[in-house]
Amino acid sequence: MAADLYGHGRTPSWLGERRFTLADEAAPLEALLPDDAPVHLVGHSYGAAVALRIAGANRARVRSMTLYEPTMWGTLSHLCPSDPATREIEAVRDETIQLIDSGRLEAATERFIDYWAGPGSWAAVPGERRPRLVASVRSLRAAWTATFVERWSAAALRALDIPCLLISGSRTTAAARRAIGLLRDTLPAATAVEFEGLGHLAPITHSERVDAAIDAFLSSPIRNAPAVAGQGAVTPHPVRHQSISIHHQENPRES
After folding, report:
1. Model confidence, pTM
2. Which CATH topology does 2-247 take?
3. What distance in Å separates the CA atoms of residue 235 and residue 78, rounded to the nearest whole number?
4. Are 192 and 68 in contact (CB under 8 A)?
5. How far is the C-alpha of 44 from the C-alpha of 158, rounded, in Å?
6. Phi, psi (deg, nearest 5) at residue 82
7. pLDDT tens-digit readout, 166-193
8. CB-facing half-sphere around the CA of 151: CA atoms within 13 A
9. What is the mean pLDDT of the chain?
């Protein structure tokens, strides 16, 4: 099952008057969680941050989570306030919001896309695709707010004992790399995979490689075993399970 976030795909933008949070983003998706079988959550970037939020609030209903470079910036600011990677993403946030507030939407789009996809990426975007991307950048302020307001403590992360696959690319940004490292060192049931030569948009630009890693993780016998409370191990046994894939970003260069 694939789910779109606010302002993406067929889902309209957030219309609430109060400050937008990841809890607001997660609420419609939590309504999709079945009561009769735990799900596998798969998320990329902002979608991965939403998946992490859903898992934390619905531990018994989530069998596993696969996170590709979650944008957990509030947690970085909270746990690593002086880290250069934290300062880097804070600067990108401040610059894009300033450009949006001054009405320079195309410049804000260029700053954001070039940060994630590499310098010159905006220049390579086909002209016919630019208006849609520029229009979508208006929702960026709310997304920045949501990701910086959400703050996990180290203790809360250590208590989240859900099997987790952490995926990243070796050519990603410093902030994304630091976030993955933090989760790798804190989550008690995490496995980390790094793709050499790939970047933040690898789930889109190299979907075959990323999908293969996800399939291997989800096909593991332990991932398909029933949860047994009070036991340190479970016997592999096939059960019905579902997955929810949370979408957010697209490849700016594709026409």
Report:
1. 0.85
2. Rossmann fold (3.40.50)
3. 39
4. no
5. 21
6. -100, 5
7. 999 999 999 999 999 999 999 999 999 9
8. 10
9. 85
Write phi, then psi, for 245 (nearest 5 degrees). -100, 125
Question: Which one, of 157, 147, 201, 151, lies nearest residue 181 by Cα?
Answer: 157
Give the residue, 152 or 249, on which the prediction is more confident.
152
Q: In what order do the strands lie in the sheet with 62-68?
A: 2-4, 242-247, 39-44, 62-68, 164-169, 190-195
The letter for the amino acid at 251 is N
Q: Which of these, 52, 5, 49, 62, lies nearest to 28 by C-alpha position? A: 5
Q: Quick one: which of 19, 20, 25 has its CA closest to 6?
A: 25
What CA–CA distance (Å, rounded) separates 247 from 2?
A: 7
Helix (H, G, I), strand (E, B) or coil at 239: coil
Domains of the chain by residue range? 2-247
29 falls in which pLDDT band (50, 70, 90)?
confident
* Tokens representing residue 30 in the block: 């939590």
Please tell me the distance from the alpha carbon of residue 173 to that of residue 93, in angstroms, as a whole number: 14
Say what the pLDDT of residue 5 is: 62
Residue type at 114 in one-letter notation:
D
SS3 state of residue 53: helix
Query: What span, in angstroms and rounded, lies between the C-alpha atoms of 212 and 169?
Result: 15
As to burial, measured by CB atoms within 10 angstroms (0-12 exposed, 13-18 middle, 19+ buried), residue 100 is buried
Rounded Cα gap, residues 62 and 41, in angstroms: 7
Amino acid at 216: A
**Token pair listed for 56:** 């934390």
